[in-house]
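SAMPLE LOG
Freezer: B-3
Tube label: C17
Construct: single chain, 293 aa
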Amino acid sequence: MKNHHHHHNNVSEKSVSLLMLSFAINIALSFVELVGGILSASMALVADALHNTSDALSILIACIAFKIGRRKATEKFSYGFGRAETIGAFANLVLLFVSGVYLVVEGVERLWSPQRIDGVMIIWISLLALVIDAATAKISHHEAHHNTNMKMLFVHNLADAFGSLGVIVSGIFVLWLGVYRLDGVIALCIAGYMIFQAVVSFPEVVKVLMNAAPDDVELEEVKNSITALENVDDVHHIHLWRIDEHEVALECHVVSADLEIAAKIAELMKEKYGIAHCNIQLEKGKNCQDCCL
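STRUCTURE (predicted):
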């Protein structure tokens, strides 16, 4: 049997504050890289600047989502606002993908028409960017394993760090060998990484938005666990879905004469599967015409 653990971890206020600081620093860095890229005629540096800008915006989106997600449930939003973080992650993925596609177009153009670039300028600017990217990635890394938004931020910043390394290599090739075409290659590598990560992460985010059942809990297994309880005659109209990244909900109709069975099922679901939200309807007989499963 699978080991079902559902963590209810929230991103700490300290992390959010550090991320807001990272947002301000990354916006400033993006401006420096963009100006430096234009002055040095480096498409790779411009690509890194645009990627950094998307990172800064993703940090801002994530911080807003964290703040909204902490709001208490209301009568209208009775499940709370936890899914705001998932929506934020979705927006970040779209931003990452679109930015990557744009850079592919620009990188290909630079491959066909390489231009002379200032190697010294892009090396110094990229060294500064590498330090900032590494520091920002470190902030998001320790909470990335349990939060999709933090994972997206870590991926963004890790891509930036590799991008900065690539631009430094491009600058070295310009200074030592006079090779300018590598600038376009580096831009394409950054773009490829962005698109790949967006495509790979997209299904998991969509599953939450589409109310899909969690991957580590099988519907048939849950149904069999309920049916195995004493005094349960039948289980139907059973549904599992993720309220947000961590919370899972269950709805089912149970045929039983035991009025206490709903409490027993709820306790079983929480202990065995970590499902804290259960909506259980008791029936005397299987006569629900509109029920499924």
